[in-house]
Protein 1
Amino acid sequence: MVRQYLSHLPFAKLRWLKQRIKSYVQFRKAVHSFQEEHFSGICSKKCFTSRTSACCGREGIITFFADVVINVLLSTNGQIDTLLETLEGDTGGFNCVYLNENGCLWLWKPIVCEMFLCVAAKNSVLAKSESLVSKWAGLCRRERRYTWPTRSVLFDELEGFFLNGGFDSPLMYLHKSPGLLRLKARHGSEVRQKSVLRREAGKS
Ligand code: SF4
Ligand code: SF4
């Protein structure tokens, strides 16, 4: 549905969406580098070589609608086809359907997956360095700028964009989760988001 809608958007609107997610992609690159530099050792040793990754259990995955939109915007058609085929061919088991022998099939794995660190990994890496603790805390704060709706955030805007286009999805947690809706109401971000969307609609 996301792919189909995006494929029919005018070029200028598509360019606006890609521009809108640019700083988020920078943030994701920063998290990826941090994880690669400090956690790839322990994660390979503890989980991937034994194929028991506690990060990638079937019950653990939470995907936001914006995770899907961002991946469709940045992936090739082939990469999205692979995700869809994998889902359709799912045969069950304990691991997440998207985990294969090379790791996660998503181009940009869902943000909840990206930010998860188990206690063992935290204890082994972060507990040894104040500077790493502070860097990780900085990345967690940055994540909230895109996902935590105490102000107008990207994940909320992307859901709103599709809702305005007449689409709906149970993954639109920023518009459906009671907890997040309460948070938005408390901070008035719904009102701000609508005015951003109105401004954008006026430009196109
Ligand atoms: S964060 Fe923990 S559970 Fe996840 S892959 Fe690394 S060691 Fe394994
Ligand atoms: S989506 Fe990717 S990172 Fe997330 S649980 Fe599944 S395989 Fe792991």
Protein 2
Amino acid sequence: MANPLTPEVLADPVALTRALVDIESVSRNEKEIADCVEEVLRTAPHLTVDRYGNTVMARTDLGRAQRVVLAGHLDTVPHNDNFPSRLDGDLIYGCGTSDMKSGVAFALHLAVTVTEPRFDATYFFYDAEEIEDRYNGLKLVAEAHPEWLAADFAVLLEPTYGMVEAGCQGTMRATVSTTGRRAHAARAWRGVNAIHAAAEVLDRLRAYEARTVTIDGCVYREGLNAVRINGGVAGNVVPDRCEVEVNYRFAPDRSEEEAQAHVREVFEGFEVEVTDSAGGALPGLTQAPAREFLAAVGEEPVAKLGWTDVARFAGLGIPALNFGPGDPNLAHAPDEHVEIGKIRDGAATLHRWLALS
Ligand SMILES: [Zn+2]
């Protein structure tokens, strides 16, 4: 099959978005799109190309003082009567238009057209972002070839509607348990009711005042919430155990260890078991490539409230932010679309930042 990513298409981020959307790449089926991307990167004499599974990367080696990464995932969620793409006025509809082939189009367009970037650039196209962690191409390369990702700054081209979303909050889940003593409900005084004891856990949650933390101008609002509660043995038994599952979203000035210590402190006197934890990412906007990126965008950054793959860059010691043309509210939706104006604006911004002239 002829590669639809022709030089003409690569020169135009709007046409490129459509062409990428029209290559089906639901998670675990990224071979075709990875082949097409790899082929065009290999024709560019200023790039060195590597591949790991269906993750493709290309880099310049111009001896610049700093290196930046532009990264995007190639996969999409399953189609929902929204494939292939269609044009409606200024909008391109289709699976992956927002999340995140319009962002991938930025990276691929820059990779082949900016032969003399101001920073050395690594363009990173990975697979399996939309499914379980263990398949994630960025995670796998970070484990197998961390040197491929070495950089001073990373831009993840996930949908942000043209805003700069910096850093991300961490998240952890923990089970807070109460214990009692079983008894027949008819002789309740012989037992200790563990569900009643959980009232104190809920009281502490209700009284909890979550922090609001400002870092590099980004405001992070924390939250500590009960998300599930489990208890009870039978309709005639005083229960001896109750478990309240809590989710703590924490600002990136706290490490995972500090977040755990905090949760244990809030529930002092109770049994606390951490079941899941992922650290956040500091916005890291004070370094030169990030500062110059903000200047090119010309807008104040906002905090990313969910957890994203920027935290994987943070785990490698690389400050990272999200910047993409798609509307994050439309990601994974049947009417997913992207505005052509946002693609043109974003591509112009990235050119201003990355190209020498
Ligand atoms: Zn995405």
